[in-house]
Specification:
This protein has a six-stranded mixed sheet with strand order 3-2-4-1-5-6, sandwiched between helices. The radius of gyration is 18 Å and the shape is globular. The protein contains six helices and six strands, in the order E-H-E-H-E-H-H-E-H-E-E-H. It starts with 18 loop residues before the first strand and ends with a helix. Helices cover 30% and strands 14% of the residues. It is of the alpha/beta class and 247 residues long. InterPro entries: His_Pase_superF_clade-1, His_PPase_superfam.
Length: 247
């Protein structure tokens, strides 16, 4: 979802919330030759991914992050570190009157790539992270992803309520597959709905909890990429792209 204004700062235009989870998809890791395979192993970000992570960190400067929880995968850790460095420099960047101290954590439950790799299907022919791509996996594989992501979601809700501070923002850094599963859990839908969502690298999705972590999460935005500037995902295809598809 793209909007003229940042979805992070300012009023949501709805009920006031003091608890929030921000789902961040790590920066891009693949080169063009590998982009067709969404399960490419534990790799660091390439230059585009580094730019994306810096853009994410800049966007999140508008909010005070309490903790960052990431998958142990390299690209996730690198993205989390980029966000943390900018948060802790908030005073020198003019975004806050004092330094921000961000708690950093990792959890294996945010890494589901090893589960997806159990698939007997040829993952090289599955369009990477496109709408419905998770539907291309076997039900047994998706069921295991669903169970692990449920544990991750419970962990995040516990983390959101683990501190006495009035306003608490937890940033979660994972890949599109785990973040999609977490959103589906938030909406209290079944695992079959995982194929109905799409997230891009470098995107953010925001979940607000106006009634606190014990209440229902309200998804404020999904797949926000406008902060990426020239690397953002266009809302509509260009005429050139349409012509290319016809050829």
């Amino acid at each position: 979802m793209q909007t003229p204004n940042s979805p992070v700062g300012g009023s949501s235009g709805g009920r006031k919330t003091s608890k929030r989870i921000i789902l961040v998809c790590h920066g891009f890791t693949q080169n063009n030759a590998e982009a067709s395979n969404p399960l490419s192993g534990d790799k660091s970000m390439n230059m585009l991914g580094v730019i994306q992570s810096q853009k994410i960190a800049e966007l999140l400067l508008d909010t005070k992050v309490s903790s960052i929880i990431s998958s142990p995968k390299k690209a996730c850790v690198e993205t989390a570190n980029a966000i943390s460095r900018v948060q802790e420099a908030a005073d020198s960047l003019g975004a806050d009157s004092a330094p921000r101290y961000v708690e950093m954590k990792q959890t294996e439950n945010l890494d589901v790539e090893n589960i997806l790799q159990k698939s007997n299907k040829d993952t090289s022919v599955i369009p990477p992270f496109q709408l419905g791509w998770l539907s291309g996996f076997e039900d047994t594989v998706l069921s295991e992803v669903w169970e692990q992501s449920e544990e991750a979601w419970r962990y995040l809700l516990k983390e959101l309520s683990s501190d006495d501070e009035a306003d608490r923002v937890v940033v979660v850094v994972g890949d599109p597959s785990i973040n999609i599963a977490l959103m589906v859990h938030c909406l209290n839908l079944s695992k079959e709905w995982m194929g109905s969502f799409h997230l891009d690298s470098g995107s953010i999705s925001i979940v607000d909890f106006p009634d606190g972590p014990a209440g229902k999460g309200v998804i404020r935005c999904i797949n926000y990429t406008a902060h990426l500037g020239r690397w953002s995902i266009p809302i509509t295809r260009t005429i050139e792209n349409d012509e290319a598809l016809k050829m």
